Amino acid sequence: MSDAPNMMKAYEPAEVEAKWYPIWENRNYFHSNPASGKKPYSIVIPPPNVTGILTLGHVLNNTLQDVLIRYHRMLGEEVCWFPGTDHAGIATEARVDKFLRQEEHITRDDLGREEFIRRVWQWRDKYGGTIIRQLRTLGCSADWERERFTMDEGLSRAVRKVFVELYNKGCIYRGQRMINWCPVAKSALSDEEVIYKEEAGKFYHFRYPLTDDSGYLVVATTRPETMFGDTAVAVNPGDPRYQKLIGKTVKLPLTDREIPIIGDIHADPAKGTGCVKITPAHDPNDFEVGKRHHLEVINIMNPDASLNARCGKRFAGLDRYTAREETVKAMQELGLVEKIEDIRHAVGYSERGNVPVETLVSSQWFCNMKELAKPAIEAVRSGRIKFYPERWSKTYFHWMENIQDWCISRQIWWGHRIPAWYNDATGEVYVGMDAPEKPGDWRQEEDVLDTWFSSWLWPFSIMGWPEKTPELAKFYPTGDLVTGPDIIFFWVARMIMAGCEFMGDIPFRNVYFTSIIRDDLGRKLSKSLGNSPDPLDVIARYGADALRFTITYIAPVGMDIRYSNEKCELGRNFANKLWNACRFRRMQGPVTASFNRLAPDLKLTGDERWMLSKLNTSIASITEALRDFRFHGAAHELYELVWSNFCDWFIEAEKVPLRAGGPAKEQALQVLDYALFRILRLLHPFMPFITEELAHQMQFVPEDKSIMFESFPADDGMKSDPAMIGLADGKFELIRAGRALKSSYNIPDGKKVNFHIRANSGTVLAFLQGEIASLKSLLNAENIALELTAFDTAANGAAPAQAVHLGAISLPLAGLIDVAAEKAKLTKQIAELDKCMAGSKAKLSNEKFLAKAPEKVILDAKALLEKMEARHAELTALLTSLQ
User: Fold this and answer.
1) Rounded mean pLDDT of the chain?
2) In 10-108, where do the E strands start and end?
3) End-to-end CA distance of the chain, in Å?
């Protein structure tokens, strides 16, 4: 038998991947044609940060997108996957600022705005394409000619147009409001950019003396340093303890100020002392109280969250945490600390800066979202947009129905500068696409827009909006969106609002939310824990297809993923199994002409009908799974089809006609080719590299063509024969039982033995007689006796049997083992187990042991007893079979 022509003995993923991706790209296979008459299908990539490098989260997200893209391409649709990157304002500015400090020992302030922005563009040109190059390594078939960047001129124009339209509509405004402030970025943040973490803290109870020296009020705070911004103490007007004090004043400790005692329902008589310090500049609830009572708003923070001059010489310039310690110390020196309690509370952290945010009053730009939200709510409620898993719609509705104004301005330099200009001489504010032509001394707004203000336009700005482009006409709205649930508010909801407002149509029809990837211990992946592997290292070790298939296989819908690199052995072994199957087929002779279509006059064997029926069933199941975004289910179905049904059973069964030669071999080759090509096409969206290579190695696809343009398999219309399928399934069950019998008595797989099979009926007997060659081959049997009666152990000696659907299979042991010696050995093993089990049961019934032993020791003892009981049952069954 000759070796498979031109096929490596083992699959080498690095070699195959390096070969095919340049071919695909150079042949323009991923580029779409908006002028085609085909049905359109499009996806926009969630644009990774320009600062980013490939993570396992990107691997999962982009693998699933590529599965959808390749699947729809094989359905014959005009497919476009729009790629691009996000300018990531705060993250990129921080990265470049750090780079400049380390490499050139200068800061952005040393350079000034224009020169710093020029340096960011330089940095972006040099380093910003890293993740896009890495996505190619993964095999992503995006239309790279249409790659965009959120700071491109076209997208920037779209941002300005949206800002101007919403401003003219009255949705965008500038005002003083309570906002979140990141001391690291020195910029405002939206509510969605604040991550809450539970941590230990303290509750400080301070005494504020009454101005008339008649006593004091006790107020409590977790942030003592903010007391310098207090402008009142609030009590509930209905609280009889304090009604007479309303209108009086207290001395604000550590200052020379007196502040009023006010009556406000914000103070809850049931909480603490019922007295609340009011700091309008640094607490959202206090800000509202301050507005109701016309209180002064005193900002005590510098942009870096150190205390400013309003706090006095002793405290001005101190870091907020040092200031907290000094404030408490000073209050203790004055005898004004009532008590200090340890507590646990939620603290808001800057998502980017990873430091606690400050809440403060600031003049910022906001967008009123309430009217924009209405059509977006209806789009999901009506089912025009569907969420997978559906439970995320509840989260969406809760946020949308309680939506707050969006703080859209950021105090950084890198980003879309707000298109507003001020005339200080006249007080005029001009908002427009370009600088005002009207004479005067105009200065542009210094702030830039929140990064998400460009991202929410992505589904149509990436296609050239506001111009009426062929891409928009063909591909908007897009088909599906694959993204993480962590940005449902940041991005998904806002894109729906923007699409409804500016395009008059939804941006996509389905949203699939990916799982969170954790390690085997259930921890989130992070560099600090050392449990976040570099996907490029994984690809180098296992191959891109192995990583793609594995991460899809272990990603159940709506559940967290437990990942470890070792799990990629599943994908690598699966690729090798497929490779070896194709290599085996090539070793049998040239490829037949039937790989696309079987001749209708073939008289298929039971095994062949079984395999083709399994294929049709799997095709229907996989197609349905992809339509329902059950990628995990599709991967499991593929694994079972290829590994078990095709490789382990069908190829082994077909070795009989292959050895027979002649017409039987020719038919076996035809069916193998037909099944293999359908399998490769089913697998292609998941494992593009190996399927492309094998499709060419098998000569299923011409040298100048690609499997990606072959049709995705559909039911071939071959009539199923349930009765025959049931018999074939029964045959394979019988073979598994026979192999298990040999294993039970440690008989080597390579040793030929005799079997006796009792058939349940004449029909079964006739079927098995026709399969005798296959049975002998798959069981490695010397002889097989087929009868309607059971094996006569009295006349022929011991023969353990196992019942199956088609009857029973027996293994005569005469000549294979010394039955008497085997009985003695089993009897001894059972006796030893009885003794051990008795000791284990005695220990577990001992109350002193149960009371004193650690829980793990008790659980281990119980597990050991269960293991011994299972082994006891197994040995007893073996002994019984020898009687």
Assistant:
1) 92
2) 40-44, 78-82, 84-85
3) 47
Give all strands of the β-sheet with 428-431 in edge-to-edge order.
428-431, 420-423, 442-444
The pLDDT tens digits of the residues spanning 698-727 come to 999 999 999 999 999 998 887 777 888 889
Question: If DSSP codes are grouped into helix, strand and coil, which group holds residue 358?
Answer: strand
CA distances, 670 to each of 598, 643, 653, 777 (Å): 7, 20, 15, 21
3 state SS of 429:
strand
Q: What is the DSSP letter of 462?
A: T
Structure token pair of residue 511? 């949203």
Q: Which conformational region is residue 824 in: left (phi greater than 0), alpha (psi within -120 to 50 degrees), or beta?
A: alpha
pTM: 0.84
Query: Using CA atoms, how far apart are residues 649 and 32, in angstroms rounded to an integer?
Result: 41
Which tens digits make up the pLDDT trace of 497-540? Answer: 999 999 999 999 999 999 889 888 888 877 667 788 899 999 99
Q: Which helix (H) or strand (E) segment is 344 a member of?
A: strand 337-350
Q: How far apart are CA 25 and CA 688, in angstroms?
A: 14
In the chain, count H helices and then E strands: 30, 29
Question: For 357-371, 409-423, 596-610, which range has the lowest pLDDT when averaged over its residues?
Answer: 596-610
| Mean pLDDT, residues 413-424 | 96
Structure token digits, residue 255 = 């200052």
Question: CA-CA distance, 157 to 863, in Å (whole number)?
Answer: 67
Residue 332: how many CB atoms within 10 A of its CB? 11
- Going by C-alpha positions, the residue among 180, 197, 198 that lies closest to residue 189 is 180
DSSP 304-324: TS-B-GGG-TTTTT--HHHHH
Question: Alpha-carbon dihedral of residues 319, 324, 328, 331, nearest 10 degrees?
Answer: 70
Report yes or no: 463 and 476 within 8 Å, Cβ to Cβ.
Answer: yes
Contact criterion met (CB below 8 Å) for 259 and 217: no
Which pLDDT band, with edges at 50, 70 and 90, does 839 fall under? confident
Q: How far apart are CA 234 and CA 288, in angstroms?
A: 12
